[in-house]
Every structure is written in C-alpha cells, then in structure tokens.
C-alpha cells in the first residue's frame, strides 16, 4: 500500500505549516532589497523547475538576501508556496534533512540507494503535480562527496516544474551546470549582482547611526564596492571612530583588524601558499593581464587564475584593447599589498619595475609611470620620460604627469627637457604666456647644465618645436628662427612628428606655404603609426589651415572633415584641435554658401572653465568668433549679432594680436551691416584697422561701409590695391573686392566696367567654389540676374548662386499659373511666339494671351523686362 502524500507511513497527517525554524535569524535588521526580491520571484514564476545559483565570497550577502526574501517577501508574493531551508553541515544527512524540511514521507519499504536514489525518492514523493515549492540549500560549496553531488545533480535536473531550487555557495559545486543551462533553467548571481547599491549602503549605515555625505558615500563605495559585510563593519567602525568621517575613511584604506579578521579567517586562510604568493605579487599593480602576472611571478599565471576563478575569489575581469585585465577587490588588494610591503623594500621595487616594463611595452604609459615613481632609483624613470613623456602630454595627461613628478621626484622637473614638456602642455591648452615662462626657464637650466636626461638630439628637437609653436601662438616674428631645409630622420615618431607640425605651421604662417605644406605632410606620414592620434589630428588640422591660407577652400573643408573624422574615431571630440577643425570645416562651408549646422554652432560657441579658473571659449577666441558668425547668419536669435560683436572685439583685444585671414573681419562687418547695426560695423572696422593695420581684410571692411553709405567713387579707390595683380590678397578678399568694384560701377552707370568686374568675381568664385561674398555685397545677385546666360563657362556657378539666394528673395507679384510658367521658361531661348505655340501645341493667340497675363503680373512691358524681373524674383 502506498502512503498518501498528506500522511506519514503510520497514517498520521503531515503538517503543511511553514517550517520557519530553520531559516537563519540575524542579530541585525537586513536591508530591504526589492531588486533582488523581484529577481527571486521571477525565477519562481517561471515554473520550469528553475535553479538559482548564488555564488560569492564570504560576507557578500548571499544568505542574508535569500533569507530576508524567504522570511518576509515570499509569503506575500507566493502565499501558497512551501519553503524548505537546508544549511549544509553534514553531507551524510543532506537528504534526510531535506526530506524533513519538505515534510515528505519516507520510502514505504527498504532504504533508497545513497545519492541519486535518495534524490529520486524525494522527487517521487513530491510528484509532478506538487504545490509550489522553494528549496534553499545554503553553504552548498560544502557538498564535496561524490554520491551527494550526484544526488544533487539528479535532483536539480529532474525537479518538477513547481519546485524552485536556490543554492547559496562560495563557489560552484562541481556538477554539470551546462545541462541546466541548455534547458534555460539555470540563473546565476555573483558578487556583482549582490553588491549593495549606494541607496542600500546609505540605509545600512543609517541603521548604525552613521550618516555620510555624498563624498563620504562615494569613498565608502570605492573602498567596499558594496560588499555587504565590509560595509557593515565600516559603518560600525565609522560610528565608533572619534575622528571625522573623512579621516576615518582614509584610515579604512589600510584594513583594520575587523576587516583583516574577516578576510583572513574566512577567505585567505583557505588559500594554498602558491595562490597567496600569486595574490601578493599581483596586488602591486592596480590591474594586470595574464602576461603581466607571468612577469611578476615567473610563469604559471594561467593555471593560478583558473584556480582563483574556480573558487570564486573576489576578482573582476574586463576586456580592453584586446586584452583581459584582472583586478582584486580594493580591501583584498590592500591586504596583500601590505603583505608585499612586509616582504621587503627591494622585492617591492623589483615588482614595480617589472610592472612598469610590461605596462610600457603594451602602451599603458600612465600606469607604468605610477610604478616607476614608486622605485627609489630614478634612472629608469629618466629613460622612460625621455621616450614617452611627450606621448603622455599629447594624451592630455600632462598636468597629472607633472603633479606626480613634483610629489615623488621633484629633482627630475629641473631638467630642461621636462621644462620644455611643460611648455608644450601649456601650448596645447592655449596658455602661451605660461608656455613662454617655461621656455625661458628651460633656457636658463640648459645654460647652467647642458646635459639632459633626454640627450642632446631630443632636447634640441623639442626646443625647436616649442620655439616654432610659440611663434605661431603669439604671432611673433618667426624669421629669426632657422628651420633646417630637410627634416632629420625619425628617432622618436612623436617628437619628430611634433617638430614637423610646429615648424611647418610656422613656415606657412610666414608665407612659405610650399615649405610649410611639405613639413606638414612629413608630420602626417610620421604620425600614422606609433604616435598618439592627437598628433595626427593636429597635423591634418594644420594642413587644412595651410589650404585655407592658399585660398583652396574646398581642400580646406575636406582636410578639416578628415580631422574631425580622426577625432570621432579616437574619441578626441573634446580637444581644442577638434574644435579648430570644426571651425575650419564650418567656415569653409559658410564661404561656399552652405547653411550652418546647429551642432557645429553649439560646439564652436561652447565655453568651459580654464586651468586658471576663469571661463572662456573651449578652443580660444578664433573658433568662438566663427561660431557666433554662423549663429548670426541663422537669423533666429536677436542676440546673436551682439554676441558676434563682443566675441570679435575680445579677439582683437587679445594680447598678442591674432593672426586673421580668409576675410573673417569683413565677414563680421557684413553680418553687422546686414543686421542694420552700422555703428557696430564701423566701430569694429576702426578697431581692426588699429590692431591689424592696413591689410586686405580691413581695407574691404572700410570699403563695405563706404559702399553702404553710397560713396561709390571712393569705393573704387579703396579696393584698387586689393585687386592689383601684385597684391597677393587672399582669393576671398579679391572676390569681395571685385564685387564692391562692380557695385560701384553699376551705381555710376559704367555698364562695361560692371560686367568686367562681375566676370572677374565669378572666375575667382567658380575656381574656389566661394559663394558667400555674392550674398553679402548688396545688389550682387541682381547683377547676376541681369547678366544671366552671358557668363560662359561660369554660367552654371552663377546659376547656383542665384538658386541659393532664392529663399531670401521677396516676391511681390501674384503667382503665375502652370501654363504661364511653361511659357516664361521658353522666353530665354529667343524663340518666337509662333515657335512657342507650336512647341506647346496651342494657338498663337493663346500664347499671346498668356504673355499679357505674365506682363501684368510681373509689372513689365517687354520680353527683356520680363526676363530681368523673372530672374530677380527667382522664377528663372
């Protein structure tokens, strides 16, 4: 006779009351964790015999989280669920205890076979139609007996759908977990899932009357990473500490006895000597790869890492740049780092050197520097700085580099090479005054002691590069600087590339465009490999500047777009050089008649807090002016004109005076005139003339004011020097000059001179695809309308300008019908009325009727007047 599921073998009823006495009770109130409760509920709700494996080191909160869920949440979310909690202590009693917790009867006759047989017997007693049941097996890592493991595997694989099993363990019991994964029945939680959130840490600390501000909470999270037991110990320590929380948190970085007792007693004492030695050596770097670990321990790292992973040691891994990086929990690393320090100063120095060499070899320069600074002997530090310090500066780590040297190796900073590096860093951040001070200091140091840790060639090369860049940044005369005819062969690509970039830029700005272009191309070739991408970004941006100086606006735009692409590919979007490239691209598009992009305007007009604590443009005044000019052209913001006036005023007030080209001043003047602010335009022109002198840009600004005032004869004399073949003026300036020349002659009634000037302007514009001056100089588009169809090979370019100007036209006449438009489009061909009628398959009288309607709507009396008005209004 088979026993009833609700009766024991003697026939007595089995109580279905929840056996709560075996659920752990803690001497503290657990922190409520709704996120974990929801996750546990979801495993139960699947009703597929699901298994949740919760693994983590001692004290991460496995048992507390599951016990709190079972005791307080599960009865509300699943009131009909049966609960069986089993804490493993004696493996031989595993199945009898589980049977007792589940309140299922023993087998009717005989004893089931150990392991699988016992598990099978319990599952048979539960039955397929069992009520919802949650089985929790705590300390499951203690199950090591092969028979017990076999029974556990059988139980998990064959559990009925209504049975959910939760296993809490420090590491995975050695059974075939993949079989459960194949059927989507296994869910894993690790230390990361169990880590307390900042809000949960705050509630836990509040329970111990420990209040932390945001900074203290951040420090505690960095220290404990949400490890529950460590957080609780820290809260108790902070509450009892007589010092303030900041000092107490600093002291916690060196594990106090309470931390050490927990870590040693429950975690570290269980490790083999080989693993402890491995952990001691690999705790020296913040993080390490398998290859670095091999260097530190002499080989065998792969096996030891496998062992640590097998026992679920608190260690994280992260894939970066094609390598797997490992790191330990901060408290564990602090413990083993203290162990390393106790083994002797020489051993620690050796481990730091090994770490630095491997990190340098794989390009982790900033991490390598940290280890070299920890070595008392600075000889290897000097070699490292000579080879790699410039790369750190380009990676925007200059400030942290010099701060670290000032704290750990101040004597190194007295080397002239380091002073020049400080000057380079200042130049990259727009601090030309600071850079000049460092350059002067380097000169004095070199005079006192010509020997440098970098050697004579590198010192000489960096000196020349800094001098050239200072000349560019300050606008100083670079003629006294002697640049070698040929670049020396590459020794260090970053240094030689920087030398080529700076000297090439200086040559271009002093008018030697061909030599400057050649140097910059050399720089680009030397920065394609083994250099920080920022140097390549600078080289391409400077090549764009050179193209702009030469008047090749299309090439300037293309190179600037390429520089922006480099910035996007290498996550360099926040650098000043990227903003400069954006300014060049946007200004080139502006000159070629394209509408500005709102995102470009936002980037160019952005401001930030500079190193001296004052607000200012992200990349200096020049890109800021370009951004405000584009913003002004949008016409959406009435305050844009005032911002443009202020920004270019600050640029002209800068010391040293800026180097301006490409018609930026006259473009701003035209923008102000277009907004009706003639007084601001005049004030800007006078200020620019006082600062920049008699250059084409200021001459054209003056001529623009004269033209708007109607003094056309004076305009002719003002623009004549710009139009002279020997003037060497920028193509944009010459184009603007010819348009002012044409407007003046048109007003004076000189038709042939007007036509000649328009032709000259179109030839320049078509060559460089520059359209903006045609929109800026009043009446220019009307001249193109008047002479439409008469420009030969420039006609397509003229038509594109007229088409681009159509949205700005104001049509005052009534709209034409579709038929009238078809007839109007036939008029420029010179065809007779009869020919038009034949083409349209209508009578000649119909065409004449439509022509009278066109004349009436356009207010014209002849074909010639009609063609002019149609072109002026954008109909043709």
From TrEMBL:
GO MF, any single term: DNA binding
Gene3D superfamilies named among the record's database cross-references: P-loop containing nucleotide triphosphate hydrolases (3.40.50.300), Winged helix-like DNA-binding domain superfamily/Winged helix DNA-binding domain (1.10.10.10)
Record region (Disordered): 1-21
Residues annotated as transmembrane: none
Gene Ontology biological-process entries: regulation of DNA-templated transcription
Keyword Transcription regulation (UniProt): yes
Span of domain HTH luxR-type: 809-874
Pfam families per record: GerE, WHD_MalT
Keywords linked to the UniProt accession: DNA-binding, Transcription, Transcription regulation
The protein's name: HTH luxR-type domain-containing protein
